[in-house]
Amino acid sequence: MISTQQPKSDRILVVDDTPANVQLLVKMFTQRGYSTQAVTSGALALEAARSDPPDLILLDIMMPHMNGFEVCEQLKADLALRDIPVIFISALHETNDKVKGFRIGGVDYVSKPFQLDEVYARVQTHLKLRQLQRQLSEHNDRLELQVAQRTQDLVNAYQRVQELSQLKGEFLSMISHEMRTPANGVMGLGHLLLDLCPGSDTLTHYADLFTQSSNRMLNLFDDVSLISDMDVFAKKLGVISRLPDLLVQLQNELPKLLITLEKPDLPDVIIIKGHEPLLSRALKTMILLAIIFSNNKSAVHLNMKVDAKHLHLRLALDKLSISSTQVDDFFRLGSDSRSGSYAEPLGLAPVVANQIVSAFGGQMRLFRESDTNGYLEAIFLREINLELPNEAVA
Predict the structure, then answer these.
(1) Could you write out the DSSP letters of every residue in 75-130?
(2) Domain assignment of residue 145, yes or no
(3) Highest mean pLDDT: which of 131-140, 184-193, 254-263, 346-355?
(4) So what's the pLDDT on residue 394?
(5) Are residues 67 and 96 in the same domain?
(6) Contact (CB, 8 A) for 87 and 59
């Protein structure tokens, strides 16, 4: 006698026009704890499946009016029923019949006369597979919901970052504008007071200090304003047709400084992405940083290399007295390593230069090689095969 197991939630539909087979199968699955329903025709099988879909169908093939193959085809054509596993039970032994059963969607094939243990083993296997498929589907559904929620969270976070960035820019722009007016008043009053004092070496010394501080303050306002408007400036993608010409302009701005450029075997026309006034400002800051972090204050030497997509400008430094950690932190807005270094007089200019280069797809980096030696490098995006006006290539 087959022992009865605990009741299971799985439901089995038995379809066979032979009452003895139906009775035998229903009795076995009932004793095993399954909920079992039996019908004796294909039409009744479809009606029962549509009314209350089972977890598995045992389907005879040779039935009048509608055979098992036709029943299976209709089941697989129904989106609500197509995933129900179908096991054929048939007296047909030909390989072609078995192949057809698998081709139209059957998951298994049991030949008559059947052995109950074999039928039960196959049913149990496919019910387990069905259960695993459901669990996988539920897991995928939960995962999709989690991904959708996470994606929405990221979208919301990005929008919040954009809003905060806009607020930051508006705040910086407002602060720059609001502080400039009273600062101009203070500086004007300072110059007036200095003019009223009798001339002396001491006065000249203090007047120079006042002028330097005033200029630093004005430059700071300009830098803050530029940082707040960086997103707008980044959209101005012009071209620089001859980078050496840009360096000549910088040489004219810094007449006491000798600027040399090494560009072995490079074309005369080097085209990089960027807005020319901004890139000129970034390059000027690079040169000033090189002077600050070098023993030679009268000359800088730039090494230029070009690859398929980038232009590399590098300046050697021999007075870089900051640590490796401080080097990594140097271009951050609130960097203590920058404000506490020789670059302190430049204020926010290094931050602005880095943001200019980054805004146009490039990168500015400071490297430390030994206790005092290192180099400053800027990497610019390069345009290839760009049509230039005639005057650019003349």
Answers:
(1) HHHSTTTTTS-EEEEES---HHHHHHHHHTT-SEEEESSPPHHHHHHHHHHHHHHH
(2) no
(3) 131-140
(4) 30
(5) yes
(6) yes
Q: Which of 86, 89, 41 is nearest to 65 (CA)?
A: 41
> Beta strands 56-60 and 86-90: pairing type?
parallel
Residue 57 and residue 31 in contact, taking contact as beta carbons nearer than 8 Å: no
Distance CA 164, CA 159 (A): 9
Q: What is the pLDDT of residue 173?
A: 61
Give the pLDDT band of residue 26 (cuts 50, 70, 90). Answer: very high
Specify the CATH number for the domain of residue 59: 3.40.50.2300
Q: Looking at the structure, do residues 95 and 50 belong to the same domain, yes or no?
A: yes
For the chain, how many residues are written? 394
Query: What phi and psi values does residue 155 have, to the nearest 5 degrees?
Result: -60, -45
CA 61 and chain centroid, separation: 55
Query: Which structural domain range is residue 78 located in?
Result: 11-114
Q: Are 216 and 347 in contact (CB under 8 A)?
A: yes
331 is a domain residue: yes
